[in-house]
Amino acid sequence: MVFDKKGGITRFVEKPKEPISDWALVGLYIFNDKVFDAVKRIKPSWRGELEITDTIQTLLQDGAEVDVQRVQGWWKDTGTVEDLLEANRLVLDDLNRDINGAVEEDTNIRGRVSVGLHTKIMNGAIVVGPSVIGSDTKLDDGVYIGPYTSIGNKVTVKRGEIENSILMDGCIIDTEEKIVNSLIGPYSLVTSNSEGRPRGKRLILGERSRVEF
Fold it and tell me: Strand (E) positions, the chain?
């Protein structure tokens, strides 16, 4: 985006082949209903897509009020699974230890771990930080949650090892396999009938997926 000398917004361009300024859009927008009329009047870009930036530019030309908030600190694009996992690691690096759930006496909580309300971590489970466990979640005996793992709300992990991964709300994990570098969408089920030494599995699953090894 481009500003004038007084700091007013003058121009938005989606992924220009040559940079037009030192400012980038972080991709978070809030619109009122004027946006619908603007969308109807824009044309596909050189990428063949209707661009949000062209929509904002149209609003600006219409005299609509367009304002920005400048981001202070780091910003990370999350357009790929690898980007999401890296952003997860960056966020967890700033995590503080905060235990709100029910942790049985012999459970191993190591390092900077956050545990949400009404979560139960059973005797024999191990959680190594930095990791975050959401609310109303249960980790059964023998479960291992390794560093840089984020687990959502209402998740059940009956068996398994999980490292450097993101599990969204409502998932059920019941496997002897080791899940690494994975992104598992909401309400997914991962199970296995195998026994023996865990093998590393990388999973990229959408919402309500079902996987059995």
Answer: 2-3, 9-11, 98-99, 102-103, 108-110, 113-115, 120-121, 126-128, 131-133, 138-139, 144-145, 149-151, 156-163, 166-167, 172-180, 183-184, 189-191, 200-201, 204-205, 210-212
Residues in the chain: 213
Tell me the pTM: 0.78
Tokens at 20, concatenated: 């037009």
pLDDT in tens, 107-157: 789 999 999 999 999 999 999 999 999 999 999 999 999 999 999 999 999
160 close to 142: Cβ distance less than 8 angstroms: no
Long-range contacts of residues 70-74, Cβ cutoff 8 Å, at least 24 apart: 71/26
Alpha-helix runs per DSSP H in the chain: 34-40, 52-61, 81-92
φ, ψ (nearest 5 deg) of residue 138? -135, 130
Q: How many CA atoms lie within 13 A of 132 on its CB side?
A: 19
Could you tell me which CATH number the domain at 98-212 has? 2.160.10.10
pLDDT digits (tens, 9 = 90+) for 2-23: 888 888 888 888 778 888 888 8
129 CB-contact burial (10 Å; exposed 0-12 / middle 13-18 / buried 19+): buried
Terminal-residue alpha carbon distance, the chain: 48
Instruction: Give residue limits of the domains in the chain.
Output: 2-61, 98-212
